[in-house]
Amino acid sequence: MRDNVESRVIIPVQNPRKILALAVSVWLCATAPSFGADPAAADSPRGMVVSPEAHASRVGAEVLAEGGTAADAAVAVAFALAVTNPQAGGIGGGGFLLYRDEHGNHTALDFRETAPEGLTPDRFVDESGKPVPGLSLETGLAVGVPGVVAGLAEIHERWGVLPWKRLIEPAIGLARDGFPVYPDLVRAYGSAEKRLRLDERATAIFLPGAGVPLRGRILEQPQLAATLERIARRGRAGFYEGPVAQALVATVQARGGVMELTDLGAYEVVEREPVRGTYRGYRVVSFPPPSSGGIILLQMLAMLERFEMPEGYGASDTIHLMAEIQRRAFADRSKWLGDPDHVDVPVERLLDSAYVASRASTIDRSRATPSSEILPGAPAAEGSDTAHFSVADRSGRAASLTTTLNTSFGSGIVAAGTGIVLNNEMDDFSLAPGVPNVYGLVGGEANAVRPRKRPLSSMTPTIVEYAETGKRPFLVLGSPGGPRIINAVFQVLVNVIDHGMELQEAVNAPRVHHQWIPDLISYEERALPADVRRALRAMGHSLATYERIGNVNAIGADENGHWLGAADPRKGGAATGQP
Ligand code: DON
């Protein structure tokens, strides 16, 4: 039987601020308007899956119950999401996994999309060097060589114990028999419908009938079922060779892309060294470049640790401090970070405590520093849509996995006859210096387009450990949301560790986001009441509302070895404990 509890799961934090915690809980209850239906929080002594979609969470919990490891469950959940979360979690995209084994060792697997060999920077710009709108978002040039199937095969090979086929079967069933369209999927069509209509295959599958399918309609994907069956039989080769690969390449080329079969054949999953830091006694492990997430998260935590957290989670002093920290870290993102196989990323120097201290020392506690005055630092002498899910098993293994197609339904292009929605990840490159991408992010040379290079990401799959390695980690979490990912993860960590919130409460709590450029704090409506907005404006901040900042699906373990799952209500995910 599943151990679902209605709301409050207590995560006992080794936290000196328990009194503040209580005050914050009271404040939240008093001030936070309800956020739609409360998501299921779950707890189980055995295993836990928290994903953005309920069928996928159930698939993972069943794999765990059959004796699968967290890796087996992660593979099964990822394939299930490729069906039930087609706006975000497809096999036509890429992703990152941070894995914890039963001894507490961590491995980072990078299966991010790569630029095809023929993708040179000039492809995206006109004669004057200006990026041509749309090319990196809704044409064949937008599509990077997908990494998800190779990544999942690698995960299974390294840490799986159940048969590969067993892990794909539930996804095949969901694709063949269909699943009911749910509110977040309906919402995802909002920004994607126009793009999907440019592609007749995408239109036929995802816009059957007159328009956007209504909630509850059964969405069947028979072509995707057949593709998944091929992958179940042939493994990685079922995607990177043969008819699926041929269809993918032909479709991309017909839409103006330059991908070749050799690009698919050459795709490699890369194991990377995770980035590590500490925060108020906890050990934080996160994803290294080509994600910016881990480094920016660790920089922000290191800056924050230098300050006493102001009283009150939602107080203007707290929001101001968080935003000033975010502003400074994101400035560094724009200059220093890119694919480490192509550019030299000064990881240690960006995380050096003296460097971080010097960045933090420029924070004025009473006034906003305009972003125009914050340049990327000099750390050394030399120079939507995405899905995150978290899995944990009986032996303390944990998978923190984020996959993405980039924007909702990616490029909106479906590879002919395969049902595979293709990413538009090439927009994550900096197409020209200082020219913002779809998330308003700017970058330079470190993240310029190069053949076979991986675009800089913000995905931040993260695992937090207790000070002493124990049987189970303290937290497993991550989020979608482009640059907002990093700040969503940052705030959930701070909510639990500094503000002493219970895990579900920490996930539910409203968020703010600053990314240096544009120079403003975006905030979820309920994050900043009128008096706090007034105080922040008086300090010199510009403010703008943003509907949903991130979607954090998190697992925590209490000291009794109980797993606690917290799905984010923002996108209506589900936490499912192992029965
Ligand atoms: O890798 C990245 O940072 C982006 N492509 C992620 C996009 C994303 O999270 C969209 N989600 N809502």
Helices and strands in order, then pairings?
Layout: E1 4-5, H1 18-31, E2 41-44, E3 48-51, H2 54-65, H3 70-84, E4 94-100, E5 106-111, H4 135-138, H5 148-159, H6 164-177, E6 179-180, H7 183-197, H8 200-206, E7 218-219, H9 222-234, H10 237-240, H11 242-254, H12 261-265, E8 270-272, E9 275-279, E10 282-286, H13 293-305, H14 316-336, H15 347-350, H16 353-360, E11 385-392, E12 398-406, E13 413-415, E14 420-422, E15 462-465, E16 475-477, H17 484-497, H18 503-508, E17 512-513, E18 521-523, H19 530-538, E19 543-545, E20 554-557, E21 563-566, E22 574-577
Parallel strand pairs: 18-19
Antiparallel strand pairs: 1-2, 2-21, 3-11, 3-22, 4-5, 4-12, 5-8, 6-7, 9-10, 10-15, 11-12, 13-14, 15-16, 16-20, 17-18, 20-21
The chain binds 6-diazenyl-5-OXO-L-norleucine.
6-diazenyl-5-OXO-L-norleucine (DON) is lined by residues 384-386, 404, 406, 425, 428, 457-459, 480-482, 485.
Task: Considering the chains and any ligands shown, give keywords for the structure.
579 residues, alpha+beta, Serum Albumin, Chain A, Domain 1, eight-stranded antiparallel sheet, seven-stranded antiparallel sheet, 19 helices, 35% helix, 16% strand, globular, disordered N terminus, binds 6-diazenyl-5-OXO-L-norleucine
Report what the structure shows.
With 579 residues, this protein is α+β, with helices and mostly antiparallel strands. The protein has 2 domains: 21-32 and 272-385 and 458-569, Orthogonal Bundle (Serum Albumin, Chain A, Domain 1); 44-88 and 109-271 and 386-447, no CATH class. It has an 8-stranded antiparallel beta sheet. Helix 13 packs across helix 16 and helix 14 (316-336) packs across helix 19 (530-538). The model is unreliable at 1-39 (pLDDT under 50). Bound molecules: 6-diazenyl-5-OXO-L-norleucine (DON). Residues 384-386, 404, 406, 425, 428, 457-459, 480-482, 485 line the site of 6-diazenyl-5-OXO-L-norleucine.
